[in-house]
Amino acid sequence: MTNTALITGASRGLGLALARSLAADGWKLILTARGRDALARAADDLGALALAGDVADPAHRDRLARAARDLGGLDLLVNNASGLGPVPMRPLADYPVDTLEELLRVNVLAPLALIQATLPGLRERRGAIVNVSSDAAVEAYEGWGGYAATKAALERLSHVLAVEEPDVAVWWFDPGEMRTAMLADAVGAEEAATAPAPETVVPTLRRLVAERPASGRIRHR
């Protein structure tokens, strides 16, 4: 039986690097991201199904869940899509609350809703969920309060889900700093250029899927 994965935020960065690795091993892939053109190019290269859209949109999540059902269910759901918040980074004293509400929809509510929509298939195939988090969820960095709050919430949801769903592996995954557009937005292109490439993180994720350790917080080292 061919394994099937759904990866959000798959047009660049860690999502695209993981998709390339899985495709090379024959996985069926459902890829989504907001950037339609970049996503289409990635999917064409990998022979994957591309469904462009915003994971915060319930109708788009329904399309993703339907695609997963049409392929017989999922072995792996990777909630990688994420928003950063206002740039330049803002202290909490000046953080716009309406922006935080939107960030919570993208970084917390959308992953949970997508899990809920795909969970029956994941249960049936004893699949796995990777919720991509950050060290900002557990460390206090000036200016990162809004983003950090969303990742801390995602980690708590992941932990409870792991207890409630013993037949599904749930990992909340801290990849560390990576050379991505998001990091460049946060700290500047020059500093971001010194970070490791997303491809260096993929072997850790592949080991999770292959070895299936107990659900929990996993940090890339």
Automatic annotation (TrEMBL):
Coiled coil: none annotated. GO terms for cellular component: membrane. It comes from the Bacteria. GO terms for molecular function: oxidoreductase activity. Keywords: Oxidoreductase. It comes from Streptosporangium becharense. This is NAD(P)-dependent dehydrogenase (Short-subunit alcohol dehydrogenase family). Belongs to the short-chain dehydrogenases/reductases (SDR) family. InterPro entries: NAD(P)-bd_dom_sf, Sc_DH/Rdtase_CS, SDR_fam.
